[in-house]
Specification:
alpha/beta, 39% helix
Length: 339
Amino acid sequence: MSILIEGGRVPKLLSSKNGSPPAERVRIALINNMPDSAVEDTEVQFFELLDSAAGGDIPVSFKLYSLPEIPRGDVGRERLNNFYFDISDLLNSRFDGAIITGTEPIQPDLRDEPYWPILTDVLDWAEQNTASTVLSCLAAHAGVLYSDGIPRHRLPDKQFGVFEYKKIGAHALTAGGGETMQIPHSRWNEVRADALASCGYEILTQSAEAGVDLFVKKKKGSLFVHFQGHPEYGTRTLLKEYRRDIKRFLKRERETYPTMPQGYFGEAAAKLLSDFREDAVANPQEGALARFPEAAVADAVEGAWHASAASVYRNWLQYLVSRKACTPALSAMTADSAK
């Protein structure tokens, strides 16, 4: 991996190779708000995706942050203390780009979440201190709620699986590849196309089955890029989430058995999982999870969305490069005009 991680320590499995210093790279702030169980996986997912998108010719550096009001256990706090910078460092810095992840919501209204005030400070910061900011899933919902008062709507069931999206119109972010792209989703809520369009958002990908995925809007100096889905997901991430939700059912932390992710498992794997469901529903005990056929189905899943995800993020990096190239020129012009 050729991604450079800024800071004195580098997270395990995320090695930094020597190369150009951070100032010469495309500098990205990753504001990782995922729950403790997913913090490290999310780091790996974004680093691997951006490494693939960079293609060896766009040097990239990351600096890690997280909203301080996200509930954490001992393990999560230790990781953040070891590898993450204080949010005050972010608010006093400028980056070429930022990626803000969501987290599992607790309150029906996002404005009642404990991290809402600092999240809005970060959104305000991003408008003026990045060339472009990516908002992932819940962060996308929070962003449009804060900026434009657009509410999210509860779905009758979890939007869970890999869905095919059609590219709408022409935009630099979706250039290249075919007319459709596959994207994983894992969410209970959605923001809708009509509300987004009425507030000036440009919808770039849409599905008749799964609604809007990718949409953008310029906010002050920054292009805000919103994903309702998770193009960064690893090949087995949906399987891990499905197993987690089954465990919650068996522990009686949720009332219903989770729906199997759509468009993700092949026929043989789906049959094994359906058989397991019948047994688990008939005898809902946590010990049943020991019989979950994870090993049998894991090797059969494929990351069909990886190429599309790398293409979009490649285009995003190229946008950041173009904006970065303009910054020194603008600074020079300003200096000349002051003489």
